[in-house]
Structures are given as structure tokens and as C-alpha cells.
Amino acid sequence: MKTLVTGGAGFIGSHMVDRLLNDGHEVVVLDNYSTGRPENLSHVMHHEKLQCHEVDICDDISEYFKDVDWVFHLASLADIVPSIQNPMDYHRSNVDGTVSVLQAATKAQVKKLVYAASSSCYGIPDNYPTAETADIRPQYPYALTKNVAEQYVIHWNQVYKLPCVSLRLFNVYGPRSRTSGTYGAVFGVFLAQKLANKPYTIVGDGKQSRDFTFVTDVVNAFVMSAESALDGEIMNVGSDDTFSINRLVELLGGDVIHIPKRPGEPDCTYADITQIKQKLKWQISISFEDGVGIMLDNIDYWKQAVVWNESSIGDATKDWFKYLGD
Questions:
Q1: In the prediction, which pLDDT does 181 show?
Q2: What is the average pLDDT across 270-284?
Q3: What are the residue ranges spanned by the domains of the chain?
Q4: Angle at Cα 91 formed by Cα 167 and Cα 217, nearest 5°?
Q5: Active-site position among 142, 152, 183, 270
Q6: Which of 17, 181, 254, 292 sits most deeply, having the most CB atoms within 10 A of its CB?
Q7: For residue range 81-134, what is the model confidence (pLDDT) as tens digits?
Q8: CA atoms of 252 and 232, how far apart (whole Å)
Q9: Which fold has domain 2-172+213-237?
Q10: C-alpha angle 36/234/220, rounded to 5°?
């Protein structure tokens, strides 16, 4: 197949590129490097079946879709606090950018588009594990824009008959997760702290749990969705389990300090993955313990990452408390 990956230099996107090349497909990458890193693709940059284009998906991108069979739409702005501070940027990237991709894919008559949706759309759900039928309760602009974009994907499927699948991802982790200066995902924060011999900054009591899902398992869900006959489906992608932050620290090893619990953040994320297991026969292959081990084996990647402490996290998240607090 000829495939196209938006955000292909990002965390999940670069692993997506690896998998597609290993499977023998042609790959076209579109990335503006706002959060993605060219270094994430340095090991495949000269691959004969790879084309990389520095481009903003909000621009006219139709020329890159010529003869493309599968589109994997992963490009987006992420993180909570920046979305509160700059909601228009997030709307442009995550909503307008998605419509631009849908238009180009429709014009090119691609065989399948798979969208990276977010489990943040559920907000603080009533039930665990959380099924796709749960109420949509976005708590901040990032979650809202990702869900609005998902609605566009399904709408394009209904109106323009563009074959689409939307995957709601739960707490994806793995090598190459972001090292940027934006305070965000727990693995990047903790691994940089470990390298610097600093204590882990645990939010609240650390008993909150997350459905940590290893990136190569997530990539496999994307590929299986593209290969399948599924059309117009929305499915959760998770590990079929949930793990406490205290358990993560236990596996990483090291001292801890505690910082205030944050409003609008669930005590648990836990995907009901009945749908994807039944419809795709998909399942995880990397356990949480093995995944943490892989992260530790690749810890040097976070040498250049920001090392967060109690004070800098407080400064970075003040708008979080300001706008999401009661």
C-alpha cells in the first residue's frame, strides 16, 4: 500500500512509520515539527520507501495524497494547559487541520482513514471500564477539539462515504514520547527526573490509576483497522487494565514528593475494549511491567528533557487551577 501519516515525526507517528516500512509499504509523512522531532525518524530518513514533507496540514495538502491508499491522521496539538491558554491554536490544528485532511483524503478517494482520537473526551466518567457509549464530557479545550474532530471524521464517513475508523487512545506510552518544554505526560516527567536524580512529583496520593498502553500495541490497532473492512466505527484502545501512579514509581524506583491534586482530572482511566477485541481480534502484547522496562532501557532519550520540580509545575499549571477549579 501507499500510506500517509500526518504527524509522522511525532511520538506515535514515528512508531507508525517504523511499522509501515517494516511491513513493506510506501510511507508519506506530513509534519510541521511543532511537536514532532526530525530525530524521531533519523534511523529511517534515507529509506527508499519514505518521503518526508515539512508542511502544515491546515494548508492545501492535496498534492501529497496522490495514489494514497491508507491515511493515518495523528497530527495534533496535545496537552491540557497550553490548550487552556491558546484555544484558537488548538482549534486550528486539531479541528481545521482534520477537516483539511478529510478533504484531501476524499478528493484522493483513499481506501481507509484511521483517526487518532482521545479518551480525554470522556472527562470524568461514571463507569469503569469506560465504554464507547459513555457520555462525552470534555474538561478542557484539547479534549474538546479532539472530539469535535472525531465528529467531523464520522460525518465525512456518513456524507462523503470516506471509509473511516476512529480510535480513542488511552494513555499511550513508549520510547520517543515527548521531551518538549510543555508540562505533560507522566512518563516524560518521571524519566527526566530519574536521570537528574530528582524526586518524582506525584499528584495527590498516587493512588490514581491510568490505562497505560504501549505504543507498538497502539500502532498495531491502527494497522489492523486499516486492513479491516470496518467503516464508520469508533473504538477504544487500551490495555484492558489500569495501573496506579504508585505502581509506576515502584517499577521506576526512586524518591517522591507530592503535589496538589488537579481539578478536572479523573482518578482512573480504564478502557472497555470489548469492541476492538471482538471486531478486530486485537489484543496487547506488551505488559505494563515489560513496557516500563523498555522505557528504562531507552532512558537516555530524555537527557535533554525539562526536569520539572514542585515549583516549576506550580507555575506551569496555575491556569489549570484557575480555569478548571470549582
A1: 63
A2: 98
A3: 2-172+213-237, 174-210+240-269+286-315
A4: 20
A5: 142
A6: 17
A7: 999 999 999 999 999 999 999 999 999 999 999 999 999 999 999 999 999 999
A8: 40
A9: Rossmann fold (3.40.50)
A10: 55
Cell of 47: 529509506
Task: Tell me the β-bridge partners of 30.
Answer: 6, 53
Question: For the segment 59-70, what is each residue's pLDDT rounded down to a tens digit?
Answer: 999 999 999 999
DSSP summary character for residue 263: T
Amino acid at 228: S
Question: Is 160 known to be catalytic?
Answer: no
Q: How far are the Cα atoms of 15, 102, 144, 266, 304 from residue 288, in angstroms, in the given order?
A: 18, 34, 29, 20, 25
- Would you say residue 138 has pLDDT above 70? yes
Q: What pLDDT score does 325 carry?
A: 82
Q: And the C-alpha cell for 275? A: 469492541
Residues β-bridged to residue 53: 30
The count of residues in the chain is 326
The number of C-alpha atoms within 13 Å of 160 and in the hemisphere containing its C-beta is 21
Other beta carbons within 10 angstroms of residue 193's beta carbon come to: 24
The yes-or-no verdict on residue 196 having pLDDT over 80 is yes
CATH architecture of the domain 174-210+240-269+286-315 equals Alpha-Beta Complex (3.90)
Local structure of 254: helix, strand or coil: coil
